[in-house]
Amino acid sequence: MTDRPTIDFPARIGVWWASESWSMPAAVEVAQEIEALGFGSLFIPEVGLKDCMVQSAVFLAGTQRLVLGTGIANIHARLATIAEGGGRSLTAAYPGRFVLGLGVSHGPLVENMLGGTYDKPLATMRSYLDRMAGLPEFVEPGSGRPTRLLAALGPKMIELSGTHADGAHPYLVLPEQTATTREILGPDKWVVSEQAVVVGESAEEQMRRAHLHLEVYSGLPNYRNSWLRQGFDESDLVRGGSDRLAERIVGQGSVEQAAASVTAHLDAGADHVVVQVLGDGDPSWDPRPALRELASALDLKG
């Protein structure tokens, strides 16, 4: 049906989990349960604390079929050729099981934490992808290039994810934005959307966790502009987001309602959705009890 590269997702729903505060042996145990529960992938972020390419290699080695994705690998954290070479190595070792998600990150993180320069995100990403494409074929010969997704929120970056990559990884978006992404990319590119949810807890605690999750993002121009394009207004962009923003962006209510917020992205045109279960703010919070409930509600076949 399409000429896009193959990703061997065992299921259409996966997990997005930030594991930086976990030791790798303990984190691998979480990944193994994610796989056993029937989820099809684990996508991990990169904020400058751990190398997501190294983590991906460890997670891939510790699981059997789980697809590993970077959500996202920060292009300011490594040379384009190193990103391409690393992606080829993982693709060669684990065909169909690695997805190289790339993003321009955010000005404060790039400049204050990584000591880089943040300027013209679209042009920066296009140049980075061109340099990746220039890596000689003798590097991991026969592996082919890694499947690439871009963290794409605005229309121009979404278009670039179609012309220079294999699709998009929308984050903190409504199903309607997933539909817009699909419309821009057409049927032949991958759309892997993220959906945050809270499982269990009282209504008040669910809302608290949603606002806590949105605290940092609500101060970043990339997401503020994205939410304005999605129909929110300036009154929704208070620190931590308005209740209206939190209710629509984060799946809340019963576990069945949380599950429905995930499958809504599939109905809107996503090929795969990664669910992020929100904890109480403690980095060592264990996502597995919530994921067990969610796997049951989603009728995953573990």
UniProtKB/TrEMBL annotation:
Residues 14-235 form the Luciferase-like domain. SUPFAM superfamilies: Bacterial luciferase-like. GO terms for molecular function: oxidoreductase activity, acting on paired donors, with incorporation or reduction of molecular oxygen. It holds the Pfam family Bac_luciferase. This is Luciferase-like domain-containing protein. It comes from Mycolicibacterium aromaticivorans JS19b1 = JCM 16368.
